[in-house]
Design goal:
Chain lengths: 252, 217
């Protein structure tokens, strides 16, 4: 009986590997600012290309680290170019596939729930704003842009005690949405949701968020991955990306 | 809504608990019945996964089994992929939970009267046979308690799994990771349903196991 149980356990462990590669979906690792845009673009691409697509969202730095360590991503949509170039230098991605696909903007978001209203970065210093959420500047490009904007506005040191770091930009927005913090600096592309008021921030205050996509070398279907990148900046993807506030290549 | 994370979590936790038993019971027995140089060191090392932050554990595990790590490269040469697959989630669950089983089982084995084992020895039984027919049946409850704890811990692991298996929907996104993901996306309904399933199923399972252990002895 015990031996049978043991044998079954071993089979359960090995069987999925022995069964051979199941038809895996095209795996896209995308920066969290793409959450809404990808949700609309992926089904269109699936229909057009007749392929299944799965999306993993996270901060650009976290995803890059995972890809570097062998995560099964086919395509990587970063929120900047630094992490992509880093992967390229390490020979982990296909250099020729590197494509500029969008430029992102940050906005100042407040929750309707908390009743706090702001018109600019300067308002963040006010006392009724107790906490301000940004994405972690160490590995999230939108967090880095937020930090640069606050530094340029001369507010960084003063606001530091108020700052709450989200693991990625979606996480930072979630702090605002739940009313856990009064305000946040988040990506424009995810801020157009019920209950959130967004005020644009002068893009001159931070380095441009030039977002690059790249196909990962270990991908079994690099052509399909490249096709997805082109689809996103092509006639089908473009209007959707634009609707979420991205500036597209050739438009900035 | 997608309930795959629930199924995956139970599959991962069950496999992990099986493997934890395979590795943990001999370890607990050695710690309880043998004295050797490094005994105390080993005993402390077993506790490390409980003490270290899960993300730290996960990070070092990833350095080992990642595509550039020594174990990852060796397995890769054999065509086996571990990091960022469901097997990595199993490994994460094992690492996180083995201490709970070992400590409980060790205490159970230590509480078994060694004279009974010696009596079996005088009757010519092998050590292997003594373990299965004397020690384990007498320490049964402690082993069940440890196994239950280990299973619960395996089911709930977040930090180690996130680091070594990622959070790939439909592949490695277990229940705890899925709940975290839904909360981040502000899909509170899905998060609540998953959390409710987690709480109800685990409570039912633990109650069932508890009853089973009591009825049998």
């Amino acid at each position: 009986m015990r031996r049978i149980a043991l044998a079954l356990l071993l089979v359960a462990w090995v069987a999925p590997a022995a069964a051979g590669p199941a038809p895996q979906p095209l795996l896209i690792y995308g920066a969290a600012d793409l959450a809404f845009a990808l949700k609309e673009i992926v089904p269109l691409f699936e229909k057009a290309a007749g392929a299944r697509v799965a999306v993993v969202l996270g901060s650009t730095g976290t995803l890059a680290k995972q890809i570097e360590n062998g995560a099964p991503a086919d395509v990587f949509f970063a929120a900047d170019e630094r992490f992509v170039d880093d992967l390229r230098a390490r020979g982990i991605v296909i250099a020729e596939s590197r494509t500029l696909y969008a430029q992102g903007r940050i906005v100042l978001a407040t929750s309707v729930k908390t009743g706090v209203s702001v018109t600019g970065l300067g308002d963040l210093a006010r006392s009724e704003i107790r906490r301000v959420a940004i994405a972690n500047p160490a590995h999230a490009p939108y967090g880095r842009a937020a930090r640069q904007a606050l530094e340029a506005a001369g507010l960084w040191e003063r606001l530091r005690p108020k700052l709450v770091y989200g693991e990625n930009i979606r996480h930072a927005l979630q702090f605002v949405e739940t009313g856990a913090v009064e305000a946040g600096l988040v990506a424009q592309s995810i801020a157009d949701v019920p209950g959130i008021r967004a005020v644009p921030i002068d893009p001159a205050l931070h380095q441009a968020l030039n977002q690059y996509a790249v196909v990962v070398k270990r991908s079994a279907r690099p052509e399909l991955g490249l096709a997805f990148i082109h689809f996103l900046i092509g006639p089908e993807g473009r209007p959707i990306m634009r609707r979420y506030g991205f500036r597209l290549p050739g438009e900035f | 809504m997608d309930l795959y994370p629930v199924w995956l979590s139970f599959q991962v936790a069950t496999t992990a608990t099986g493997l934890t038993l395979l590795a943990g019971l001999p370890l607990a027995w050695v710690l309880a019945r043998r004295r050797f140089a490094g005994h105390d060191l080993l005993e402390s090392a077993v506790m490390l996964p409980l003490v270290l932050p899960p993300t730290v554990l996960g990070y070092y595990l990833l350095l080992l089994i990642g595509s550039r790590g020594p174990v990852g490269r060796a397995l890769g040469a054999l065509g086996i992929e571990l990091a960022f697959t469901w097997r990595a989630a199993v490994l994460a669950a094992c690492v996180g939970s083995i201490a709970l089983l070992v400590k409980a089982a060790q205490a159970g084995f230590e509480s078994v009267d060694q004279r009974l084992e010696q009596a079996a020895r005088t009757l010519g039984r092998s050590e292997w046979n003594i373990f299965w027919s004397v020690t384990l049946p007498l320490a049964w409850r402690a082993v069940v308690a440890g196994t239950t704890l280990a299973f619960a811990r395996a089911l709930g692991d977040f930090g180690i799994t996130l680091m070594v298996a990622g959070s790939i929907p439909g592949m490695t996104q277990t229940m705890p990771l899925a709940i975290y993901d839904r909360v981040q996306a502000n899909q509170m309904h899905d998060a609540n349903v998953l959390a409710l399933i987690a709480v109800v199923s685990v409570t039912a399972l633990l109650m069932g196991l508890g009853r089973l252990a009591r009825v049998r002895f």
